[in-house]
Amino acid sequence: NAGVTQTPKFQVLKTGQSMTLQCAQDMNHEYMSWYRQDPGMGLRLIHYSVGAGITDQGEVPNGYNVSRSTTEDFPLRLLSAAPSQTSVYFCASSRTRGDYSNQPQHFGDGTRLSIL
Amino acid sequence: AQTVTQSQPEMSVQEAETVTLSCTYDTSENNYYLFWYKQPPSRQMILVIRQEAYKQQNATENRFSVNFQKAAKSFSLKISDSQLGDTAMYFCAFMKQGANYGGSQGNLIFGKGTKLSVKP
Asked: For residue B34, which of B77, B89, B86 has the smallest C-alpha distance?
């Protein structure tokens, strides 16, 4: 059981480049989300999804795009990277239905992204 | 909107002693969950303890316990017999209790964190 897998673990981009951060989970979780972590700011929600085909914005969605075509995958896209998007990105997932509703989230190991 | 405040950016404790990390939150919800996550230098986010707001009894997990004061909207974490491996960032987090499907129930609101150093 791999849990939540994020790739890559590290990435350096130039301003204006595009990039997709991958997130996959093998636990059949309905809920998936992306957070960014900046020094002194804690983790802030970027986008989330409650199931395949359903996505919504979190606290800091600008500059990011997501889609959820399968239950397992939830990629995060940066269409035109900016230095302000330098951060550590975490993907998380959880069950939300039936007896497993309101369960704590499982986090991936994070992606450190630097934009020059 | 919910907010979570951790007023101690950094703390230190001697090995084997007890330390308490503070967390306060603001919400108009009556049903919710509170969590403490640990983030060691490896960057992993590790769930330490969870508290359901409808439960009056404070949650306990081995050396970790909480003091949950619902009326005061306070949720502190006590670490007993501190160990070197407890050195980490600790985040307090809030989650609304929602319906079984849909909505924003899974979204976590995090505090800014407390950096805990355990000294030998």
From this structure: B77
